[in-house]
């Protein structure tokens, strides 16, 4: 039985049907005793195409990008982040560490319709969103109400933002061309043991440049016994590929179970089975079953030694029986020979005696009397 943990490849699959998306992912952070930090990653259809650091403020294009009409610098995006760093943390009482995340951009549907967005988050939680149709900011958190009122008063900033995401972004989106590359998919399966239990966390790590990936599946006869499972991704990588991770909780007691990971794409399927190792090469299945294997080895050796001992005893017993039988046979033969020799000697002695008597004159003198007729002497 298979456990299928599948998902829709949202950003990348739209490329195949004529849709495209362009995102500018900006990040700013501030902590006590340190100045504000900034960086921005530009992503086209889920593929990183440019990176900009706050220290240089210059866009660094990725090799995967063949052509694009991208701005040479990210000064405007950095200015927006720095301004937000001075306005958002005080309003939410963020005094230790604050991480601001901004996602702005545009998407073109197959029928040519353009949609734009500008969303902010604070410490990983949705904070505020800009609505291009209404030309106003909307808070997604009660703590963002103060910032919402403040930003809605800045008309010039709203007009500049609206111009970028509704006019400049679609033009950049139209000018982007990626280099044609051969699709490459790499699947690795490993596990991490839980030292306090007999369970382990099984991970299928998928790195691919194929935009037609549709699902990642946990397969094998142990898939139906997995305690839980989840899939995350696609996550963009700096080399233009994307990453998927399938995680499942498995038991190490049942060493006969087989686990594998199957990746389904538009034209190929990739299947890799777990060899029982961890990420650093340790063999979990062997470690969990070493007791039983050692016990089986000891029992096997005991059986072999016992069989050899029984065979040796049987052979020794048979040899003794054969030896006794041989000695008994030899004794009987010697006795027979002795009796025969004794009888022969007695017979010869008797014959010899009789012959001596036959030729001995005294014998005849003693045993034969000549009877003479009566008459005068």
What does this structure look like?
The chain is α+β, with helices and mostly antiparallel strands and 377 residues long. The chain has helices spanning 10-16, 75-92, 145-152, 155-175, 284-359, 361-367, and strands at 3-6, 20-30, 37-44, 47-53, 59-61, 65-67, 98-108, 114-122, 125-131, 136-139, 177-178, 185-193, 199-208, 215-219, 228-236, 242-251, 260-264, 269-273. Strands 5-4-3-2-7-8-9-10 form an 8-stranded antiparallel sheet, with helices on both faces. A hairpin with a 5-residue loop joins strand 4 (47-53) and strand 5 (59-61). The protein is rod-shaped and about 160 Å long. Mean pLDDT is 80; it is low at 1-17 and 368-372.
Distance between the termini: 145 Å
**Form type:** rod-shaped
Largest β sheet strand count, sense and barrel closure:
8 strands, antiparallel
How large is the count of helical segments?
Answer: 6
Low-confidence parts, pLDDT < 50 over ≥5 residues?
Answer: 1-17, 368-372
Rg is 51 Å
Helix content: 25-40%
> What value does the average pLDDT take?
80
Category from helices, strands and their pairing = alpha+beta
Q: Which strand-content bin applies to the residues? A: 25-35%
Order of secondary-structure elements: EHEEEEEHEEEEHHEEEEEEEEHH
Q: Tell me the total number of β-strands.
A: 18
Order of strands, main sheet, comes to: 5-4-3-2-7-8-9-10
Which properties best describe this structure?
36% helix; single chain; 8-stranded antiparallel sheet; 6 helices; 4-stranded antiparallel sheet; alpha+beta; 377 residues; disordered N terminus
